[in-house]
Design a protein that fits this description.
The protein has 226 residues and is of the alpha+beta class. It has helices spanning 2-28, 99-102, 112-122, 207-215; strands at 31-40, 43-55, 58-62, 70-74, 79-84, 89-92, 132-141, 144-154, 157-164, 169-174, 179-188, 203-204. 23% of the residues lie in helices and 40% in strands.
């Protein structure tokens, strides 16, 4: 009898541990796709801003503004690139698109930490500055509960972000210039891992290196002093 109870106890404990492990794995498995839509305070009609795909800590963004390529963001390695398949090249995204700085995986309790990291990576803020986040409420967006944060990065510079705690990702961003970008038609489903990697045969393009080479050639003409 005692032996049977002991076996039952260990089986129950094993089941609990397995459930906890599965729960941790599923919490980390953040894979979904969504459409990005923009509206402006002066023009309520919406416009397509692109396609968003998320594979755990990696993000792929395709947008009409850069129809010849796609953006890849890796939140863990703190990298953001823009790739052009036709030319088989990629380059650092820098300030090409604010989408790569805002639509990234975040801590639901402190989204400013990752936004600050991406802003510094893009070179849009002084390294000594810091973002501050204040939770100001909650709202349902397309059936999903989102915490609303006001993020201040500098005097008179702030955004609003709606964060989904389950996805650990922004559902909506409202910028200081009156533009609102929303992730709609969210589909939680496995994403092909290959879409989130730069192909091995792509070469990295460095605009600064190209400018340096041009300056060293006969083509470059310095502007005469005034």
């Amino acid at each position: 009898m005692a032996k049977g109870l002991m076996v039952s106890f260990w089986l129950s404990l094993l089941g609990l541990v397995s459930a906890l492990i599965c729960g941790c794995v599923s919490a980390q498995a953040q894979q979904f796709s969504a459409d990005l839509v923009t509206t402006h305070i002066s023009a309520p009609e919406s416009a397509t801003a692109g396609k968003l795909r998320v594979f755990n800590d990696k993000v792929r963004i395709e947008t009409p503004d850069f129809a010849d390529g796609f953006f890849l963001v890796n939140a863990t390695s703190r990298a953001a690139f823009f790739a052009r398949p036709a030319e088989r090249i990629f380059m650092e995204a820098r300030q090409s698109s604010r989408l790569t700085r805002m639509f990234v995986p975040v801590d639901p309790n402190d989204p400013c930490r990752q936004w600050q990291t991406m802003a510094k990576l893009a070179g849009t803020m002084d390294p000594s500055d810091s973002w501050l986040c204040e939770r100001i409420g909650e709202e349902m967006i397309d059936g999903r509960r989102a915490a609303i944060y006001r993020a201040v990065s500098a005097p008179n510079r702030n955004i609003l972000g709606w964060i989904d705690a389950d996805l650990k990702f922004p559902l909506r961003i409202q910028t200081e210039d009156g533009v609102t970008i929303t992730a709609e038609n969210i589909k939680e489903e496995p994403q092909p891992a290959r879409l989130f990697e730069i192909p091995l045969d792509f070469r990295k393009f460095d605009p600064q290196a190209l400018i340096k080479r041009i300056k060293q050639s006969d083509v470059w003409v310095d502007e005469p002093p005034r």
